[in-house]
Specification:
Layout: E1 6-12, H1 19-27, E2 34-41, H2 47-57, E3 61-66, H3 71-81, E4 86-89, E5 95-96, H4 100-110, E6 116-123, H5 131-140, H6 146-152, E7 165-167, H7 169-174, H8 184-194, E8 199-209, H9 216-219, H10 225-242, E9 247-251, H11 255-261, H12 263-266, E10 270-276, E11 285-286, E12 289-293, E13 305-307, H13 314-324, E14 333-335
Parallel strand pairs: 1-2, 1-4, 2-3, 6-8, 9-10, 9-13, 10-12, 13-14
Antiparallel strand pairs: 4-7, 5-8, 6-7, 11-12
Length: 337
């Protein structure tokens, strides 16, 4: 068999209801030089029958049967079996728009120094009942160029994971998905960016990212909020230390912000003080650090600030306040919430 340019790695578990539409969207791509590694992770519904049906229709569909082992083991087996120059990720409950692979392959061919490319995505859930998820989709769709993606990585993952395509050699060089008490897709992005992999996006909407109630990010404890903050602290600390920043100030002195920021000290980054706007906190000592007012913020270049202010609009307000004082994101401050 000829080696395809693109290997689609598609883990499937109890996916019989959504898998037909997913596979139809893949087989309907304008770019046809692909294999679809559809890995059935021990499903007990009709997933296997769906895969057999599509494999009979199109030889590019390559079912792989395995006992149930979970997402990480399953997707890593797909990566090990993939033969293509490029790896395209896909989930069984999402849909590709017809030009996705054409545009992503074109981008990677035109930008040989870029290792991974995503795209803009369309939210496929209920925008009212899942307003938080919809807001996240809107946010990642604002991150278009390499710099924006790299600087936003410590807020949340800057990509919808099923939208990704990357050069196959990256997993061999920097490691595939790791198993642990963290969101494995976010950890991979943080680790590869930390290793210097350049990441970008095609600025077209090429994937429908659905939001079923069974999505792992809704049901798996590895995707809990605290798990995100714990893993991002490891890579944020590496980023800070690589820039010679062994001490930082933190914007946000609330209990949750302090708990999340203090993870940094486990990795060798000392927190010198908190900055806050609450007059009840200013002048006190919390978690053994003094709380200062924003009016005490020094001139740019004298202190690096990491913002852990969350909540609706909080991140934007902090960024606007720091920008107004002449601070430059990535140089004088970074957002981490």
């Amino acid at each position: 068999m000829a080696v395809p340019r693109v290997s689609v790695v598609l883990p499937c578990y109890q996916a019989a209801d959504t898998l037909p539409a997913c596979l139809e969207s893949l087989l309907g791509q304008s770019f046809g030089d692909m294999e679809i590694l559809a890995l059935d992770d021990g499903s007990t519904d009709a997933t296997a029958e769906v895969l057999r049906h599509f494999a009979r229709l199109d030889t590019r569909v390559r079912p792989v049967w395995r006992p149930h082992a979970g997402f990480v083991a399953t997707v890593n087996e797909g990566l090990a079996q993939a033969r293509g120059e490029f790896i395209a990720r896909m989930d069984a409950d999402d849909l590709c728009l017809p030009e996705r692979f054409t545009e992503q392959v074109r981008f990677l061919d035109a930008h040989p120094a870029v290792g991974l490319v995503g795209c803009l995505v369309r939210f496929g859930g209920d925008p009212v009942r899942a307003a938080g998820y919809k807001a996240y989709v809107d946010w990642i769709n604002t991150l278009g160029d390499e710099e924006a993606i790299a600087l936003a990585r410590f807020v949340e993952s800057p990509f919808a994971h099923p939208s990704l395509m990357w050069r196959r050699a990256l997993a061999s060089r920097f490691g595939a998905f790791y198993e642990g008490p963290f969101p494995e897709d976010y950890e991979l992005i943080l680790r590869w960016l930390d290793a210097g992999v350049r990441m970008a996006k095609v600025l077209q909407t090429l994937l429908v990212w659905n939001d079923p109630p069974t999505r792992l990010s809704r049901t798996d404890p590895r995707y809990a909020t605290d798990a995100f903050y714990a893993i991002k602290a490891r890579y944020l600390a590496r980023w800070l230390l690589a820039r010679g920043l062994r001490a930082v100030a933190v914007a946000g002195a609330g209990r949750r912000a302090r708990q999340r920021a203090l993870h940094l000290e486990r990795y060798g980054v000392h927190i010198s003080r908190w900055y806050d706007v609450d007059p009840r906190k200013i002048g006190t000592v919390l978690s053994a650090k003094p709380v200062s007012s924003w009016s005490q913020l020094p001139a740019p270049g004298q202190e690096f600030v990491v913002s852990y202010v969350g909540g609706r609009g909080g991140r934007e307000r902090v960024a606007a306040a720091l920008d107004a004082r002449g601070y430059v994101v990535g140089q004088d401050y970074i957002l981490a919430a």
